[in-house]
Amino acid sequence: MERKVGIDDIAAYVPKIYVDAEDMAKARGIDPSKITKGLGIEKLSIPDAHEDAATMAAMAALEIMEKNELQPKDLDFVHVATESGPDAAKPISCYVQGMLEQVYGSGSFDHVGAPETKFACVGATYAMIDRLAYIASGWSKSRCSIVVGTDIAKYELNSSGEPTQGAAAVALLLREDPRLMVYEPEFTGFGTVDDRDFFRPIERTTAVVNGQYSVGCYLRDMRIAADAYKRNMVNHGVLKSLKDSMVEKAGLISFHSPFPKMVQYAFATFLIHDWRNLPRWEKIAKEIGPEPSREGLADVEFYVSEGYKEFRKRFAMTKEFTHEYQEKVADSLTAPSLIGNSYTASVWLGVASHFETRNGDLEAKRLGIGSYGSGSSAIVCSFIVQPEYREVAKKIGLMEQLGQRQKIPMNLYEDLHEERLGLRESVVPPKNEFALDCIGKESNDCGYRYYKYMR
Amino acid sequence: MERKVGIDDIAAYVPKIYVDAEDMAKARGIDPSKITKGLGIEKLSIPDAHEDAATMAAMAALEIMEKNELQPKDLDFVHVATESGPDAAKPISCYVQGMLEQVYGSGSFDHVGAPETKFACVGATYAMIDRLAYIASGWSKSRCSIVVGTDIAKYELNSSGEPTQGAAAVALLLREDPRLMVYEPEFTGFGTVDDRDFFRPIERTTAVVNGQYSVGCYLRDMRIAADAYKRNMVNHGVLKSLKDSMVEKAGLISFHSPFPKMVQYAFATFLIHDWRNLPRWEKIAKEIGPEPSREGLADVEFYVSEGYKEFRKRFAMTKEFTHEYQEKVADSLTAPSLIGNSYTASVWLGVASHFETRNGDLEAKRLGIGSYGSGSSAIVCSFIVQPEYREVAKKIGLMEQLGQRQKIPMNLYEDLHEERLGLRESVVPPKNEFALDCIGKESNDCGYRYYKYMR
Fold it and tell me: Which pLDDT score, from 0 to 100, does residue A2 have?
């Protein structure tokens, strides 16, 4: 018998301090609306002096364990995905395990698997699928798995990437017969292309980013993955033909959000592709004109061409698009617009946002995921929201966390960014919280990061 | 119905040049037997000027595809594990995919998943289990998966790690009803402890290694994982009680080999633990004396204590140990002793060595795996050798590759080690082979590694 597996609960961790987008715009001498409207970002989460990707991951993992009264023996894996982890050989998951053992007891997690998955921002989605498959295969010897996506998106001061910075971790609790939503493995589509839109040679401390080009890669890979997803839907009889709309079948959608406006681009591109053969398209085409020709253009060139961007802009102003966007996508951006980019965590912050901000009845709705990672790969997959979701959604608590943060001025932000503050000089000193305690200086622990639960 | 999944075929790639252990010993002014006997290493694989972990992985993946006449559409995942990859954000798997597309056509792999798994030397075993679970769950839409372990073990010139260096990649072809061996998921045991025996802070280009301490961590984690494996065997009725021997149930064993002598330590420690309650132990204890007390010592302290090491040495000289070791383990070290350390690939080179060097009838034998990664985690798991293994084993071809290599002198080795040779100055210029072609220097591709199939 097929096991129904999926996401039982979600917990997020967001640093307690943030920079206001308007403050950043003023300091950089740019029009604030370029950040708030152009990118869709209102606040940027900034990790405090004692935080890194590992402490954030451990905080999210601890919260999901406490909220669900889980014991270490209930878990088969603590599996973390990141592209801003502390170590090139030892997985971040193992650092997280060590932190959790400070709370649950030394050796309490010695039965778990703890690998790290790397694939830029799509890493946590890859990890989630692998852990779900492990449960579905019947191989797991525990009740649950935890997958965490954790990242700090950090770019140079004054760079074009600076206003998209952010930081967050999301922990997913995975199990059989989950309360939140059941995964639909039969439809999942992948779209993977070896590309260089964003990469970080191992010898560099900052990534090399081609922003515009990356938008094109995102759209291209998402189309390949969506086509695969649609074919699978046809093969399983959920759609009659490839000309039917798959977006019709989804009630909610969360996309990876490097900046919220990107999600609008993505969804518009998605819909243009999905609706092209529907009867309604005739009316839309009359209103906005025909799609520009892609003749002679490679996929990415087409997606970043002025002609296509203009066309998509016109489409994004139609009431058909606006209705779909408001109905299915807009709510996913509540948290990302208050956090900034969080790489692997981003698409799951979108899911948490949906559950926390929607008042309507979500039961039995299909929730679609459009997860993208540079380099590059997209995964399009979906879940069915379960009746017990209400109970779970009530306790996600992400919005409350976001509401309790403290705004910091630009000079303090720059001090943190440039690592001018010591580990003991946090803006909000850690309390009941994991913290980076010290960094090894001896020959046998040079550069090693020691973590501690601060009571 | 339970699907039988496992390893259908294995392909290895080893650089075409090597350094002789005796040459290295002479150059470093040490007794050659310290390397050849003390470590068990005869030759050290050295990557040529055009090689890195990505080219080696692509070579192993290409070989397994060609040998089995696979097309890209036959594969669901190209999943690579490494701790010496080129990129901190983009997975090495995606670079490998790009190389394979140079042979199979642009876009031919756009349907695959391509994540990277990181957990020091145990990474490929983690990746293998996840891909097998994916097939076992029925979620795979293709016939096969490829998992590659690829690594370059490199330490400073004149350092104590230098004589253990090596380089290799191993590709595993995974599928339902495999010809080589069927996985036994029900027994798999994990042993994971947050530790700092070997790590590489992201800002460092070389790892920090505590050699002796790491030996202790290896033995501790292996014992935790073996205990879990044994409990699972008891729960499934394969063993009557925890006092029975699990090693009795295995016909062949392959351990992670940072250096072959470590495998002897590991197997002796394994056996002491496994045999402690057997009737035969009385006779052994009479011969070698009682086990030293571990009172007051933490696990790792005990395993690296002089008293325990002496005791294990005496045990390793008994005819009972020697018989088991020769029968089940020794053949796994053929390739590792001619290659050096290859991190994620090592334990799988051991499996390939077994199949290539054993003349006896292996059908229906249980092959045990003891996989270890610093940081730290061990996985103990097993497979059952299938009737069709003979056909597959005949074509592994690793021994032939090892026999065709070219020995290089120490000065040339040092030039390669210190990167004094340009990408076009390879000792054996690449032919029908993937090569690192150039490294980006512009602002938008700074440090990016471009690869090319050289005909």
Answer: 82
Give me the domains of chain A, ranges plus CATH numbers. Answer: 5-454 (3.40.47.10)
CB-CB: which of B127, B133, B377 is closest to A137?
B133
Question: What is the C-alpha separation between B117 and B268, in angstroms, rounded?
Answer: 30
Whether the CB-CB separation of A342 and A263 falls below 8 Å is answered with no
Q: Please give the single-letter amino acid code of residue B377.
A: S
pLDDT at A335: 98
Cis peptide, bond prior to residue A376, ω within 30 of zero: yes
CA separation for the pair A412, A420 (Å, rounded): 10
CB A349 within 8 A of CB A231: no
Say what angle helices A319-328 and A260-275 make with each other, to 10 degrees. 120
Q: Which residues of chain B have pLDDT under 50?
A: none
Look at chain B and count its residues.
455
How far is the C-alpha of B160 from the C-alpha of B39, rounded, in Å? 11
Which of A104, A109, A110 to substitute to test the interface with B, most B CBs within 10 Å? A110
**Distance from C-alpha of B104 to C-alpha of B453, rounded to nearest angstrom:** 11
Closest CA relative to residue A123, chosen from A163, A87, A151, A142: A151
Residue that is written with structure tokens 């070389």 in the block: B206
CB of A410 within 8 A of CB of A25?
no
Is residue A359 scored above 90 in pLDDT?
no
Would you say A337 and A42 are in contact if contact means Cβ atoms under 8 Å apart? yes
| Contact by Cβ (8 Å): A120, A149 | no
**CB pair distance less than 8 Å for B126 and A113:** yes
- Are the C-beta atoms of A292 and A312 separated by less than 8 Å? no
The pair of structure tokens assigned to A299 is 């996929």
Nearest chain B CA: its distance from A329 CA (Å): 25
Q: How far is CA B192 from CA B81, B103, B128, in A?
A: 18, 40, 17
Contact B111 A190 (CB under 8 A): yes
> Is there a cis peptide before residue A371, judged by omega within 30 degrees of 0?
no
**Residue A166, both tokens:** 């952010």
**What is the phi/psi pair of residue A368, to 5°?**
-95, 145
Q: Is the peptide bond before B376 cis (omega within 30 degrees of 0)?
A: yes
With CB atoms and an 8 Å threshold, state whether B193 touches A123.
no
**A247-264: pLDDT as tens digits:** 999 999 999 999 999 999
Whole-model pTM: value is 0.98
Q: Which residue has the tokens 């869709």?
A: A40
Does residue A184 register a pLDDT over 70?
yes
Tens digit of each residue's pLDDT (9 = 90 or more) over B179-203: 999 999 999 999 999 999 999 998 8
Q: Which residue, chain included where needed, has tokens 């919005």?
A: A399
> What average pLDDT is seen over chain A?
96
The number of residues in chain A equals 455
Distance from CA of A355 to the nearest CA of B (A): 27
Tell the residue number behind the tokens 């779970």, with chain if given. Answer: A392
| H or E element at residue A56 | helix A53-67
CB contact under 8 A, B87 and A198: no
Asked whether this complex has an ipTM greater than 0.90, the answer is: yes
Q: At A103, is the secondary structure helix, strand, or coil?
A: helix
